[in-house]
Amino acid sequence: METYTARVMAKVEKKRALNDETLRDFLREMLLIRRFEEKVEEQFRAGELPGFLHVAIGQEAVAVGVCQAMEEGDVFASTHRAHGHTLARGTHPNAVMAELYGKMEGCSHGYGGSMHLYDVERGNYGANAVIGGGLPHVTGAGLAFKLRDEPRVAVAFFGDGATNIGTFHESLNLAQLWKTKTVFVCENNHWAESTPGWQHSPVWDDMSKRALAYDMRSIKVDGQDIQAVFDASQEALEHARSGEGPVFLDVETYRMHGHFIGDPQVYRTKEDRDEAAQNDPIVRLRERLALGDDEFESFDAQAHEIVDAALEFAKNGTDPQPEDALKNVYA
Fold first, then answer.
1. pTM recorded for the entire structure
2. pLDDT score for 263
């Protein structure tokens, strides 16, 4: 498969000020993730996709900003909302779509599906349906990078609700104690599935305080501003890579859809949903770049074209054989 990012993503230089051309590339990537997730939602509602589906519409700037700040050799673990991270890190849309369809051509050869996809070749240690399940993995990876004296960093994505899970506290405690090369990225959309932040955490309005108990460096950033996310991520990654210890990144963002496709969102007011829509990171970046309709529509058409091709590829993929069901089962 041809690498889809080859013609649309520029190599990001190590500098704080992103030029407009690079920001245009970031916009293309965010649009691709948005159109990809809209398409899989459409297919899921039509009964084409099995299982559950969780989309991160509204949180694209987090995925692109963090993943574009990462370097070759860095690794990450994701959540049940992993499509954006996976695409932003360079997995071909064909391979992601085929995985959602359970095809052999999928990035996990059909074993993972939406909530358990992985792509080890690109440092993707996997989506995880267990809340906070990826944090111990990246803490261990970050420890390995430190002990081997490798200039690599392990990144964990998780939501605000995961900060109440035992593995979150155990991982941060050990990471700081051992000075692992780890960055903890809290995608803080304030909902923890369906519970508002003020009902589940005493520091819901400033999750960076979660790191205080471990004397860990923390950075708070607006997750709808891709420039801010990229800058903060680069700072966090450089700090961890230098061996000075892990970093907690509190990224405040908006989830524009429900927890899962089909979620009636009875727990959420119309005003809250409207506020999320008004803070669309794609709209914000388009306005910052002052893109006219023609240029934006060209970017959008390209995203639709890539996604449509991925869907066609997936539908024509190879179904796994029943006898392969127990392969890779270790216990």
1. 0.93
2. 84
The residues spanned by each domain of the chain are 19-290+301-314
Instruction: Record the tokens describing residue 76, joined without a space.
Output: 């990450």
**267-280 exposure pattern, b = at least 16 Cβ within 10 A, e = fewer:** ebeeebbeebeebb
pLDDT, one tens digit per residue, over 231-277 is: 999 999 999 999 999 999 999 999 999 888 988 888 999 998 999 89
Quick one: DSSP state of residue 254? Answer: -
The two structure tokens encoding residue 77: 């673990």
Q: Measured in Å, how far apart are the chain's first and last C-alpha atoms?
A: 33
Its CATH architecture, for the domain 19-290+301-314, is: 3-Layer(aba) Sandwich (3.40)
Nearest to 105 by CA among 316, 323, 325, 321: 316
CA pair distance 137, 304, nearest whole angstrom = 35
Interatomic CA distance for residues 72 and 51, integer angstroms: 32
How far is 328 from 324, CA to CA, in rounded Å? 9
Strand partners, 217: 247
- For the record, the structure tokens of 301 come out as 């058409």
Residue 153 has pLDDT above 50, yes or no: yes
CA dihedral 300, 303, 304, 308 (to 10 degrees): 170
Q: What pLDDT was estimated at residue 10? A: 44
Q: Is the pLDDT of residue 17 over 80?
A: no
β pairing state of 247-252 and 217-222: parallel
Cα(63)–Cα(55) distance, integer angstroms: 12
Residue 185, strand partner residues: 157, 249
Tell me what percent of the residues of the chain surpass a pLDDT of 90.
83
Answer positive or negative: Cα dihedral of 221, 226, 229, 232. Answer: negative
- pLDDT for residue 135 is more than 90: yes
